[in-house]
Amino acid sequence: MSEQSVATAPPAGKDEHRQSPPALVRLRILMHDKPILGPLVVLVLSLVVFSLLADNFLSAGNLSLITQQVMVIGIAGLGQTIIILTAGIDLSAGAVAVFSAIVMAKAATDLGLPGPLAILVGLLCGGVCGALNGALVVRFRLPPFIATLGTLSVFYALGLYLSGGATIRGTDMPAIMTAMGKSFSLFGTNVSYGAVLLVVLVAVVSYCLLYTSWGRHVHAVGDDVQAAGLTGIRTGRVLISVYIVAGVLYGIAAWVLIGRTGAASPQSASTLNLDSITAAVIGGASLFGGRGRVLGTFVGALIVGVFRNGLALAGVQVLWQDFAVGLLIVGAVALDQWIRKGSR
Amino acid sequence: MTVDRTATPILQARNITKSYGQVQALRGVDFDILPGEIVAIIGDNGAGKSTLIKCLSGAVAPDSGELLLDGKPVTFAGPKASREQGIETVYQTLAVAPSLDIASNLFLGRERRRPGVLGSVFRMLDVKGMRKDAEKALSDLGILTVQNLGQAVETLSGGQRQAVAVARAEAFSSRVVILDEPTAALGVRESGKVLDLIRQVRDRGLPVVLISHNMPHVFELADRIHIQRLGRRAAVVTPQSHTMNEAVAIMTGAMQVDTTPSADAASLSKA
Fold it and tell me: B239: helix, coil or strand?
């Protein structure tokens, strides 16, 4: 939040061990103050490395492909990030998105609703799913991990039931429902509408988190629920609102997913649950709550996309792509622990 | 700073009782604080100190008895209600959000929005204005050694965090500031700073209720000392009328005090 210089407040007492921090400590403080720094450095480094490894990596066409590959994960990752900010986690993110996609598609094909209305129904479905998760966490006091582990199966099963296990083709739907997969030309590059939507959403969610009371309350709840309650913040309301907003974001991800894959299928996006967490964590969001930026998640999603794409172009087997992403996650969480070590 | 012993108590509790199941935490306790004084509450564990201040701050509703604010009966529906009446509490846990910066913490739970469309439609916070006011609140109390208001509270030392919490209470309080064990977690030097801070709050006209286990701190700061024992007020003494050992003796029951006359704030003016 702060654009000011690095924290070097003179301690009230003379703590000798605080006087001249060694370089490593200064680096930690810097990364603590600017959480976006780590992911950004990793992204730039990976871009450089892969452009050296694969000739066509930096081509306009390939970069456009990467953005198309990350747009669904990126949008779902935004929802995941605000939940992680409250020290929660949402294992059902992908299941909500897939269920919403099927509801959206069914509303258009079976009910014959006009496109925009069908999309709205899909977003509403995401919001209701989120509200259910939020209610389980707030009213029934379930740990978010358990609550969403349960709803993950529930939403997945509902999606299967509603679709009858069959894929609904995008060609059967109104054009607007697949529009997010379409591209327009900008400076000779193909830019998909879904990627633009992702950027817009990053800006909107960032604004809400950094410049509204709601955003500050989300951070405060993630930091320390009891403390937040004592300052008069209605923590239950904040938590439920967070899960609802996340659900709606998964609904938007569902819309983009239909465009990207040209269909609504109960089998699609099976890795989205964990991919959204991956994007948030690599982007610097702390699973302990209170720390994280949606801009970081955006960069985190790009890092995953760049790694997968770059390794594929370099001719590396898929299993090593997973291996690399796994290392990234472990590295990011270890880094977060190290950054926090000094402050608590 | 002299205290007018004949003034109407700014906050007064009469015959408050509170039970948690079988446990009677408060058995008809009286309490009063006059304008411009520091009243310390001391007592052994389980004497009902915390329950008493929770009743005063609205966090707990008493079973019976009454609270008087400026001589008028009040009931608080919750911490927010008492805060609206100008009673601010600094809890032992400080109730700060470590990852937010100092200015954000000062205004946590009562953020101000920008005027006009930005505030009403886009809900934009008045970040600059709040930061400016936070700076004023901190510098008024002489604790602007914390240079950078954009600094996260988790980067501060324990004493600095306490200072932020006290400054928040001071800035928003119009009647009484309640401090629960403000020096419990602090070192000697930091404690000293916080004690100075409490004195400043009092000297700026706000009466302070101070809960503490630390007898030297209590005797250094308090104008009067409310001794809580077994859910009742055992006595009210002053640092001049009694020694630390006597206060501890009353606290533990080793020394009996006739509560009726000395507990009366007015009679203490002669002491």
Answer: coil
Q: Does any domain span residue B148?
A: no
| Residue A76: domain span | 42-338
Q: Is A32 on the interface with B (CB under 8 A)?
A: yes
Cβ contact, residue pair B151, A2, below 8 Å: yes
**What residue numbers bound the domain in which B207 lies?**
21-98+159-269
- Cβ–Cβ gap B108/A231 under 8 Å: yes
Please tell me the total count of domains within chain A. 1
| ipTM attached to this prediction | 0.79
Residue B202 lies in a domain: yes
pLDDT mean across residues, chain A: 88
Q: Is residue A11 part of a domain?
A: no
| Token digits of residue A267 | 């089998």
Nearest to A12 among B125, B145, B152 (CB): B145
Q: What is the per-residue pLDDT across B120-175, written as a single tens digit (0 to 9) for each? A: 888 889 888 898 888 888 887 777 665 678 888 888 888 888 888 888 888 888 89
C-alpha dist (Å) from residue A288 to A37, A135, A174, A273: 19, 21, 42, 19
CB B191, CB B166: distance < 8 Å: no
Identify the CATH number of the domain in which residue B34 sits: 3.40.50.300
- The reply to whether B92 touches chain A by the CB within 8 Å rule is no
Asked whether residue A8 is domain-assigned, the answer is no
In a domain, A23, yes or no: no
SS3 at position B180: strand
- Bridge-based pairing state of the strands B208-211 and B176-180: parallel
Residue B13 belongs to some domain of the structure: no
